[in-house]
Amino acid sequence: MHPDITVNSTSCGLPPAGHYSASVTAGGFVFISGQLPVTRLGEKKAEASFDEQTRLVLANIDACLEGAGVSRQHLVSVRVYVTDISLWPTFNEIYAEWIGDFRPSRVVAGVAELHYGSALEVEAIALAQ
To answer: Model confidence over 15-61: pLDDT tens digits?
Structure first.
């Protein structure tokens, strides 16, 4: 591994389920892998309401940010994948509550399917400290 790359594989509380790191710090940025609605105990919440899934995913993003020593105000880009684009307004409302007045760049994309039958997945990039 390159000496300028720090793997933060446990920074989100739950070890990744596959061959990847939950977050990596490199080049002055923190790269957070896609977060699904999975609790820190590994419970998959795909059957939960969209609101609950969204709040859990954003809490997982918070855990990854905290594990990398940064906060939401360090976010520069957020990518959101939803299986039902008609739920975008609901996501946007919850996201606005979560992020406050701060507005990093963002993508919201409709996709056919996500792992475990989840309704959304979020990945992010933040400035490292």
So the answer is: 677 778 889 999 999 999 999 999 988 899 999 999 999 999 999 99
Sheet architecture: strand order including 23-26: 5-7, 23-26, 29-35, 120-127, 75-82, 105-110
CATH (domain of 82)? 3.30.1330.40
For the chain, where are the E strands, in sequence order? Answer: 5-7, 23-26, 29-35, 75-82, 105-110, 120-127
**Which residues have a Cβ under 8 Å from the Cβ of 107 and sit 6 or more positions away?**
77, 78, 79, 80
Please give the residue range of the domain that contains residue 97: 5-127
Token output for 23: 């977050």
Q: Is the pTM of this model over 0.85?
A: yes
CB 95 within 8 A of CB 43: no
In angstroms, the CA 62 to CA 66 distance is 6
| Distance separating alpha carbons of residues 60 and 22, to the nearest angstrom | 10
Taking the C-alpha atoms of residue 62 and residue 117, their distance in angstroms, rounded to an integer, is 22
